[in-house]
From TrEMBL:
This is Cytochrome P450. Gene3D superfamilies: Cytochrome P450 (1.10.630.10). Keywords: Heme, Iron, Metal-binding, Monooxygenase, Oxidoreductase. The keyword Heme applies. It holds the Pfam family p450. One of its GO terms (molecular function) is iron ion binding.
Length: 429
């Protein structure tokens, strides 16, 4: 949008974020929101927070000042919940639960989905990365353009999830084809056709995972699904099949398209800021800093899709959010807030060098994985895939360049791609 023409009374930020101008570059509008309407009430009645401090507080206060919708309230926040399998699956996910149910489910999944389990996947992830890069090398060396989004960024998380879940690769590719449709159908302004497409894809995913759980129960292997359905002698509590299906569905939705988008954004950063590639040529600490800055600069999820219901009247920035209001947070705006990150539109991995994951040298939290009780379970898995990919891309293809204009999906909710064409420069050019 032309920010100069923006009035002080933006009627609906969600609609503006879906405009072609914001699909191309949403950050000028986000800057305007932070400065002029940081606690925005959209035409639908949803509230949208855009300042880092407010977002951080709201995420941390989930379970206290905010809660998820109770089962009996779903129709209020999702008018089509009664007939939509996708919305019912969403309602059953961990992200929609409050303590004590959330505490129980998070404990059960965290029992097996551990940092150690993810680190054990590193050799497999490195092998998948090498194989995908081997696959695109001949075409690049012939001077042909390659769509890095389709051939690498999308393929890598699909194959990693197949490994994690103990699934045949072809099955994962088939399921993954519908994930984008599900995510679009779950957006706060999804149309009836979008939700219908999401329901078809969700039914397919649910049926497949139901069958997978039964196979793992009778023939367990060393994958995460086998562990989750297996017996734990020291723990009488287990996940029901419905809870496990919901968990797997949520993990796939939350970690596939978003990881692909982060890989795409990382490659864009490598090409746009060649002076910063040195971070990928040194130790793991430098690679980690580059990864964190990619995640900060371009959060793959623009705003939260999960309703957070105000438990009382809440005043932020002189605006009263009434009790029972639905509040969403504009994650991508918080990551570009100058009150949290100095010179926020500058790509600068140094701000994350030598720090804990997600924390800047100034002690500010990068918000792309959320915060508080609903912090993303798959954060480490995404970080490992980025850390294993980027140095290898840099080392294999030091002359990588754009072969055309990257094409983005026309989504207000997800900052994702349709194509990222690349080629190799001739040596010396």
């Amino acid at each position: 949008m032309d920010v100069q023409e923006t009035t002080a009374a933006c009627r609906d930020a969600f609609a503006e974020l879906a405009s072609p101008a914001c699909i191309h570059d949403p950050y000028p509008f986000m800057r305007w929101l932070r400065e002029h309407d940081p606690v925005h009430r959209a035409a639908s009645g949803l509230f949208l927070l855009s300042r880092h401090a407010d977002i951080y507080w709201a995420l941390k206060a989930t379970g206290d000042a905010f809660r998820g919708p109770a089962p009996g309230e779903l129709a209020r926040y999702f008018s089509r919940a009664a007939t939509s399998p996708s919305l019912n699956l969403l309602a059953s996910t961990l992200a929609m639960k409050d303590p004590p149910t959330h505490t129980r489910l998070r404990r059960l999944i965290s029992r097996d989905f551990t940092m150690g389990q993810i680190d054990n996947l590193r050799p497999s992830i490195a092998r998948i990365v090498a194989a995908r890069l081997d696959g695109i090398t001949p075409a690049l060396e012939r001077g042909e353009p390659v769509d890095l989004h389709r051939e690498f960024a999308l393929a890598l998380p699909m194959l990693v999830f197949a490994e994690l879940f103990g699934m045949p690769q072809d099955d994962m590719f088939e399921l993954a084809a519908g994930i984008g449709a599900i995510l679009e159908g779950l957006g706060p302004h999804a149309s009836d056709p979008q939700l219908a497409a999401a329901d078809v894809a969700s039914a397919r995913v649910r049926a497949y995972f139901g069958d997978l759980i039964q196979r793992k129960r009778t023939d367990p292997r060393r994958d995460i699904v086998s562990m989750l359905v297996g017996a734990h002698d020291d723990d009488a509590d287990t996940l029901s099949d419905a809870e496990l299906i919901s968990m797997l569905w949520g993990m796939l939705l939350g970690g596939f398209v978003t990881t692909a988008a982060s890989i795409d954004h990382a490659v864009l950063a490598m090409l746009a800021y060649p002076e910063q590639r040195h971070w990928l040529q040194g130790d793991a600490v430098g690679v980690k800093a580059f990864v964190e800055e990619v995640l900060r600069c371009d959060a793959p999820v623009m705003f939260s899709s999960i309703p957070r219901i105000a438990q009382r009247d809440i005043e932020l920035g002189g605006v009263v959010i009434p009790k029972n209001a639905d509040v969403r947070v504009l994650i991508a705006s918080g990551n570009r807030d100058p009150d949290a990150f100095a010179d926020p539109d500058r790509f600068d991995p140094a701000r994350f060098y030598g720090t804990s994951p997600g924390m800047s040298t100034d002690g500010k939290i990068m918000l792309s994985f959320g915060h508080g009780i609903h912090f993303c379970l798959g954060a480490q898995l995404a970080r490992v895939q980025l850390a294993e990919s980027l140095p290898r891309i840099q080392a294999r293809f030091p002359t990588l360049a754009f072969a055309g204009q990257p094409t983005r999906e026309p989504s207000a909710f997800l900052r994702t791609f349709r194509a990222l064409p690349v080629r190799l420069h001739a040596q010396g050019s």
